[in-house]
Amino acid sequence: MIQVVLNFVIFQAAWFITVYSAASGLPIYGPLFTSLWMLFHLKFFTKKYRSEISLLLFAATLGYLLDSLMVLIGAIAFPERTALGGPSPLWMVALWINLAATINFSLKWLHGRLLLAALLGAIAGPAAYYAGSVLGAIELFGIKSLLAISVQWLLAMPLLIWFAGYEPGQRLIHSLFAERGGE
């Protein structure tokens, strides 16, 4: 139980540090903090390293693609001071990795509940982006942005939950990033 609570608390802290530092024009601090958090997470939380790393890589890739699409269609934008890569900045990718680290711990209750995951995503996704916009890390364009983000997370959250339990997909992701000739 302590792992679940600690996982949730560090997730929240990482979200705030990442978004606040980006909004303050220091967008590298979030990815640096997330990197340290992931080292801690993999060392003290995870027993299935290969599966967890595959999930983190899948979330990073999915997040970069989806948020980049959102930028390209004009649903969201990032102020110049938050830019670090693009179209979706590196700190946003760090947020997706941070979220993925909760899927087998503080969000484990969503396993096997894909409709509930979709509903949670459709509500919590826009809420998180809205909070980021209030802090000044992201620009939203009214209801158009919130609806697009809601649809994005309606699909993304159950996909992340599903992938966490899908061993063939995890093996595929791992093999794409694994060293050739090793293991």
Write the layout of secondary structure elements.
Elements: H1 2-23, H2 29-44, H3 49-72, E1 76-77, H4 90-100, H5 114-135, E2 139-140, H6 143-164, H7 167-177
Antiparallel strand pairs: 1-2
Structure commentary:
There is one protein chain. By secondary structure, this protein is mainly α. Helices cover 70% and strands 2% of the residues. It has seven helices and two strands. It has helices at 2-23, 29-44, 49-72, 90-100, 114-135, 143-164, 167-177, and strands spanning 76-77, 139-140. The chain is globular. The model has no long low-confidence stretch (mean pLDDT 92).
Number of E-state strands = 2
**How large is the radius of gyration?**
16 Å
Q: Spatial order of the strands in the main sheet? A: 1-2
Give the overall form.
globular
List the uncertain runs.
none
Overall pLDDT, averaged? 92
Assembly annotation: single chain
Beta content comes to under 5%
Total helices: the number is 7
Largest sheet: 2 strands, antiparallel
Order of helices and strands: HHHEHHEHH
Measured as a percent range, the helix fraction is: 55-70%
Distance between the termini: 33 Å
Protein structure class: mainly alpha
Please supply descriptive tags for the structure shown above:
single chain, 183 residues, mainly alpha, 2 strands, 2% strand
